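Q: What would this complex look like in 3D?
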Amino acid sequence: MSRFIPINKPTLGEEELEEIRKVIESGILTSWHGSGPVTERFERAFAEYIGVKHVIAVSSGTAALQTALAALGIGPGDEVIVPPFSFIATANVVLLQGAKPKFVDIEPKTFNLDPEKLAEAITDKVKAVIPVHVYGHPADMRPIMEIAEDSGVAVIEDAAEAHGAEYNGRKAGAIGHIAAFSFYATKNMTTGGEGGVIATDSDELARKARLYRAHGQEEAYKMIALGTNCRMTEIASAIGIVQLRKLEGFIEARRRNAYQLTSLLTAVSGLEPPYEAPNVRHVYYLYTVRVKESFPLSRDELSAKLREAGIGTSVSWPTPIHLQPYYKKTFGYRGGEYPVSEQAAKEVLSLPVHPAVTEGDIRFIAKAIKELAEGA
Ligand SMILES: Cc1ncc(COP(=O)(O)O)c(C=O)c1O
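A: Here is my prediction, written as structure tokens for the whole assembly.
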């Protein structure tokens, strides 16, 4: 095979290595409270970038979501609204806190939580809602915030896929009451494989999140609340500082690739390119098309043929959360409950647009798809 274009490729180099070297030479690798000198610099830089007062660095996006729930005091007896079309972490953290995820279906164009279905799902038990900015396209936050604030429900943005995305001119992660980001290896920026942050304007939520991150210790060996260890290392933060500097460049490359691919794919019938609402900045963590029934190949056949042609694809997510074996067994879901999510799971296919993808690669991807569409 002459070339293979992977679906995602972390872009790290000499600058990251240089910062890692400095941390190693400093001898400070972490701290008991989680805000070592480099981590503190990373937190400040990320807070400034998205426009919030507080950023708290943690060990993963999952840890960030769980810390946000803990800071809000969510626990047994509470319910939290989540979309079924997300990575399993979004619902699992609710269960891990002893609370119950309550699913609300998505809207078909952006794959994000449907605000029209949100209001009717809110009851006295519901304490929070977690809109997910799926693939890097922000959820429709204005109606979500209005509905939540009218009913006294907290909004936790799952911005794991949306670094730098914007909604009505505001950055994702700076709109809800608290937000979680992931720096997992494939994300638009990484802290070296794993990592996450919590973002909030609330002094109180930030204080609780910091406590939770360090076993509830107010000072070394003095514990005042229940917590865990989910600190970010100084090396991870050092990588994060460099990646954050590069993020805008990464996003612009992704957007350029996405627009070029869309312009080449719009003529292909049975294939629906991604939608970008006029009031948002999509950051194309994943460039995801719908492979409709009218396309000559099934989604999985198309994916296999593209792989043979040297093009990596992925399916996020092939199974909506409520239909995961564990959720079916625990809660009795059988399918049919959240039809928009279930349909999306059958049709979505992501194509490579990461910063290392060239204009020539995009033409190659589009040509391969067109040939398959025409049965060549
Ligand atoms: C939407 C969403 N939520 C949560 C997570 C969890 O992040 P992490 O893998 O860093 O724990 C991810 C990423 O994997 C994600 O895509």
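A: To summarize the key features: The chain has twelve helices and 15 strands. Residues 60-62, 86-87, 89-90, 132, 158, 160-161, 182, 184, 196 surround pyridoxal-5'-phosphate (CB under 6 Å).
Q: Very helpful, thank you.
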